[in-house]
Design goal:
This protein is an alpha+beta fold and 261 residues long. It has a single domain, classed as L-fuculose-1-phosphate Aldolase (3-Layer(aba) Sandwich). It is 39% helix and 13% strand. It has an eight-stranded mixed sheet, sandwiched between helices.
């Protein structure tokens, strides 16, 4: 999230022994952090990727504040509940990350995975009054599925949560104006493939806008066809982007498999 002064959330409590399902999610989330690091989608110790944990109590995993993405492992991820209690550990987390991610996990049923970036290209498009333009292959894949949320400052005020969720509505992608990008999904690869496409759309738009001459708008017919054929939003079980994500997992595992520990 934003580079706010970190706060250690209060009320540390204990939890039951870790389930196999939780450990599998920890490994997957740690791999995702390493993938973001490999792609350069990080701000050293800021920003977050989170996953909702299974079980009757609403909780999610988040990175401990102060570690680089390439230092995140399955075992050092932190469990936080929706009240702000750090469960079973006393590691600090960035409060700004808790505010946004808890709001999305709590109130968007499909948001099992939430990913947020401050890439230069994403922030640049978020600073434009007209936001994303439908002028390239990647924008056409996600057109009509991107929400916008106005900038209110560093995300440390919990009263923003309701407005954020209202801005998101039923959209799985969000351009946080003046701030960055956000994506959610039912699986890691679904959320990632959506964010990947939005990131590429932003990069392409910036390059096209830097050249003289008008850009070519994608037609309505081509847009409808591209959204449909991309498969990013019509999967019944979130099984989209699996091959891409698995390929990136192999890269980070070959580079440093310590994320699994």
């Amino acid at each position: 999230m934003a580079s706010a002064t970190p706060r250690v959330l209060p009320n540390v409590v204990r939890t039951d022994p870790m389930s196999e399902a939780e450990w599998a999610l920890r490994v997957k989330l740690a791999a995702t952090y390493r993938i973001f690091e490999h792609l350069g989608w990080h701000m050293v110790v800021y920003n977050h990727i989170t996953v909702r944990l299974p079980g009757p109590e609403p909780r999610f995993l988040i990175n401990p504040f102060g570690l680089r993405y390439d230092e995140v492992t399955a075992s050092n991820l932190v469990v936080v509940d929706l009240e702000g209690n750090v469960v079973g550990a006393s590691s600090p987390i960035n409060f700004a990350g808790f505010v946004i991610h808890s709001a999305v996990h709590a109130q968007v049923p499909q948001a099992h995975w939430v990913m947020h970036t401050h890439t230069r290209e994403g922030i640049a498009i978020a600073c434009k009054a007209n936001g994303l333009s439908n002028t390239n292959f990647y924008s056409a894949m996600i057109w009509g599925h991107v929400a916008y949320h106005d900038f209110e400052g560093v995300t440390v005020r919990t009263d923003e949560c309701e407005r954020l969720v209202r801005s998101i509505g039923d959209k799985p992608l969000v351009i946080l104006r003046n701030h960055g990008l956000l994506a959610h999904g039912r699986t890691a690869h679904e959320a990632f493939s959506r964010l990947w496409t939005l990131q590429l759309a932003c990069e392409t738009q910036l390059l096209a806008d830097s050249m003289p001459g008008p850009n070519i708008e994608v037609s309505e017919t081509a847009t409808r066809n591209t959204v449909r054929d991309s498969g990013l939003f019509d999967s019944d079980d979130g099984d989209v982007g699996g091959e891409l994500f698995a390929a990136l997992e192999r890269i980070v595992e070959a580079k440093d498999p310590s994320y699994k520990t």
